[in-house]
Each structure stands twice: as structure tokens, then as C-alpha cells.
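Ticket #366: bound-state structure for magnesium ion.
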Amino acid sequence: MNESPRTVLVLGATGSIGRQTLDIIRRNPHRYRVVGLSAGTQVDALHQLATEFRVSPEATALGAEEAELLARDIEADVVVNGITGSAGLGATLATLAGGRTLALANKESLIVGAPLVRALAKPGQIIPVDSEHSAIAQCLTAGRKEEVARLVLTASGGPFRGKSRQELVSVTPEQALAHPTWNMGRVVTTNSATLVNKGLEVIEAHVLFDMPFDRIDVVVHPQSIIHSMVEYVDGATIAQVSIPDMRLPIALALNWPERVPGAVTPMDWTRAQEWTFEPLDNEAFPAVQLAKEVGAAGGAYPALFNAANEEAVDAFHAGKIPFLGILDTVRAVIDQWTATNAEVTRESLLEAETWARSAAHQRIPA
Ligand code: MG
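RESOLUTION: The complex was predicted; output attached.
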């Protein structure tokens, strides 16, 4: 362990990832020191945290644009990006450009901004916070890169696991928000019901681990105890097992490659338990297949997928489209995109997102 504490900049400090990050830091004051904080809108909560962690006003930021400046200007060993949505891309790029370690919880950085992130990131500079990708990173330490056959992401299956496409026709927003394992925001929870979240995670895995899409599988594992797996060329599969608690991947990202003692409660092997696995039903849940297609197409396609989905999720919750209409809308928007794969810039990605949102709205009844 280092003598001096690791310095940490926490972006999105009042969100779920940010709060759990600060919880770990609070319990390990000899390991970590907070040197900066940002929040989206919760100004009072941000000030409270700044007082608690003795962060000066110059090192706090409100809003994603200010957070990007903090990521650029504040000296930190680790930057935790827990910003929600594609607004987090700027902070990711600033962190990478500054040569700092990025503990990345902002999925959209890798979905929307993959070409830009790839151009900046050095090997090992991004440590994933998403539980599946943290699991894969851990499983990858069991062998050499050339020995990896496939990555296997586990999925809880969401609240509609086991339902056929026909049975999904009439499911309601209320049913979609009842997630069996994790407790998250509305878009993320709905993405768990449609399996869009798993589709986004497949793209994330492709970008993070440089693995072709035909070697990334998804298996439904309702207990969410195995967080993902790596299959090696000899037929061995290595799995990462722990209770579903985000503080484990967060703590590991703060301390990578060393582990933080007592980060979460270990498994209790004195209690009987059962882990089950089911293949993914691609007809009922086409999101993973569609994500692989847009991921392979590259360019702005993953950004279109993400933006159209966010609009369709809102429309579903407003009662304007049915559950299956979410992915139907996303596919229609993607099929409508005709721009060629010109050079991708932040501006062109933003334009593509804006286009996708309006194209989605044209398909959604008022
Ligand atoms: Mg995840």
C-alpha cells in the first residue's frame, strides 16, 4: 500500500456511483483523499460533501461542462466519472488527455464516444466500474490475452425474464420499473427490462477489451451473483462471484490492481443456494443483437442507438408507445440514418444524437 493516500476526483458525486465512492473513501481515509467534486444539479448536497471532505470551492463543479474543466485542471491520481448520460463524455476525454487513471462508470463515454476515447486512452488507463466489466477485468488476470476465447456477460434478465414476445405486448411501465436485483434510475431500470442495458454493455466490453462482437456472449443469470466470465482457449471458464453490491467494483477501480479489504460482505457458503443460467431469447429481447449490429457498424451508430432509446423510453413511460415499441422505434431510427461514416468528432456525434432524438419523435404519437 502507498504511504500517501491516493487523490481522487469524484464527478457525479451526488449520484448513486458518486455516493458509494464517497462511502468507500469515508471508510478508508488513510487510502484516499478527495481533491475535487462535481454534481449535476444538487447544489446543496454538493456543498455538504465539499465541507465534509474539505474540498475548496474552486475544486467543486456544478454541471457537466464545469466537471470537464475540473477533470482537465485538478491534479488527481484517479478520476471517478459517475456522470449520467452522454454529458459525461467531455470529462472522460479531459481525464484521458491529462494522463490520469479513469475509473469509468459513465457508459455513454464508451457507447457514444468510442472513436474519440480510443484515440486518447493508453493501455490500462481506463478501469471499468460497471460490475460486468469489472468482473471481466478480474477474470482476465487468469490468463494471457491470446488465450482468451470469449467474454461472457451475465444478465439478470430483468422483470420480464422468461416472457415470450407475445406476452410482452401488453406489459406496463409500472411492471418495467420493478427490477429484481439492482435499484437504479428510470432509464437504466427500463433498459434492464428491455435488455438495452445489456446491449450497451456488450458495446462497452468490445471497446474496453478490444474483443470482436462474435466473441462476446450474453447469458441470463437471474441471481446476479456471477458478474461475468471469461472463457479461455482450453475450455476453462473463469467467473467473478460476489454479492450484488457496486461498492466492490468501485473500490477495485479506486485501488486497481490492488483490492480494498472489506469492500463488501463476502459470500456466505454455509447457506444453500442455487445459481441458474438461461440462454437469451433474442426474439423477445432484440436489444442485444441490435446493439452488436450498431457496435460493429461503428461511427455514430452506437450514439444513435443510445439517443433513440432514451426518447423511446420516455415515450413508453408517457403511455405513447407500448413496451415492444421501444426497440421498434430504435431500429426504425437506425434504419433511417443515411449519413456516411465520415470522420467522427464531438460535434458530429452531438449532431447525430440530436438527429436521432428528433427522428424518434417523428415516429412517436403525440
Ligand atoms: Mg452493469
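RESOLUTION NOTES: The chain has 15 helices and eleven strands.
TICKET STATUS: resolved
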